[in-house]
Amino acid sequence: MNKNTKVGIVGYGYVGKAIHNFFKNTFDVAIYDPALGFTNKDDINACDFTVLCVPTPMSADSSVDLSCIEESLSWIKTPLTVIKSTIPPGTTENLRTKYSINSLLCFSPEYIGEGNYPVPYWENIPHPTDMTQHSFHIFGGDVAATKKAIEYWKQAAGPFAKFMQTDSTTAELVKYIENAWIATKITFVNEFYDIASTFGADYNELRELWLMDGRIGRSHTLVYENKRGFNGKCIPKDTNGIVAATKAKGYTPKLLTQVLSINEDFLSL
Ligand SMILES: NC(=O)c1ccc[n+]([C@@H]2O[C@H](COP(=O)([O-])OP(=O)(O)OC[C@H]3O[C@@H](n4cnc5c(N)ncnc54)[C@H](O)[C@@H]3O)[C@@H](O)[C@H]2O)c1
């Protein structure tokens, strides 16, 4: 363990605990999460870098509530902050300006999930709980910030993981294109389940034949009769979030708006 380096984790929920697990054998760790009794901001600001894992819930108008992110960035003073919370495109740059942040700041989309089903990580599918088994890590921001983040990440991740760098807006979009794609795929297969039923065909049989073609990935192609459509903590929130953020910039995503509306119908079945 490199006891000379200390990472601060702000927000110790699902993602914060996974980050802790990722770094615990490599660096010293400090935690800040007042609701859980971790209240020492000085401890965080004595760290070499901070990983920000606070919630970004959906507001009543479907937009992304950034209040926890803003509150955190108003006091974190470590030389580098890596934002792991899912935030709309442009947020990292906007907040850097708003809070006059001169230290290094970047965004890194998180790929753990709350899946309780087996996931073949060896097929480049991120492990649902263990970041040490992730085959890639993405960092978006100024090159100085992404390079610094990779210096820390590579010590915990080792040589087999890929370390990708881009600008912060593209990295922020990556999380949304992933979750909006999953939402769309689930909506599509649920629609085809009903199409197959309309013709008296069995969707499970149809699905296996469809998946003989290697161009179609198997993930998110099952339809659960007792659980139609998509639900859970991230997919609906993030699909609503990207639609709301894009609308606020003057373009209304047509397909994703329909996906959200059709999903409401599936959820009510
Ligand atoms: N859960 C996932 O699978 C997953 C995957 C990828 C990305 N994300 C994103 O990561 C972020 C965190 O998600 P999560 O599932 O870990 O949430 P969570 O609700 O499990 O944990 C959030 C933690 O942050 C704490 N917190 C709230 N406000 C705070 C503040 N101002 N300062 C410090 N701590 C604060 C809460 O007490 C809580 O313990 C969200 O933006 C989410 O969209 C989650």
- Which percent range describes the beta-strand content? 5-15%
Biggest sheet character = 7 strands, mixed
Shape descriptor reads globular
Provide the residue-averaged pLDDT.
Answer: 96
Q: What's the CATH architecture name of the largest domain?
A: 3-Layer(aba) Sandwich
Total helical segments: 9
Per DSSP E runs of 2 or more residues, the count of β-strands stands at 7
Query: What structural class is derived from the secondary structure elements?
Result: alpha/beta
CATH class of the largest domain: Alpha Beta
Describe the structure in your own words.
The structure is a single chain. 42% of the residues lie in helices and 14% in strands. It is of the alpha/beta class and 269 residues long. It folds into two domains: 2-159, 3-Layer(aba) Sandwich (Rossmann fold); 173-267, N-(1-d-carboxylethyl)-l-norvaline Dehydrogenase, domain 2 (Orthogonal Bundle). A seven-stranded mixed beta sheet has the order 2-1-3-4-5-6-7, sandwiched between helices. Strand 1 (2-10), helix 1 and strand 2 (27-32) form a beta-alpha-beta unit. 36% of the residues are buried. Nicotinamide-adenine-dinucleotide binds at residues 10-16, 32-33, 35-36, 53-56, 68, 71-72, 84-86, 110, 112-114, 233-234.
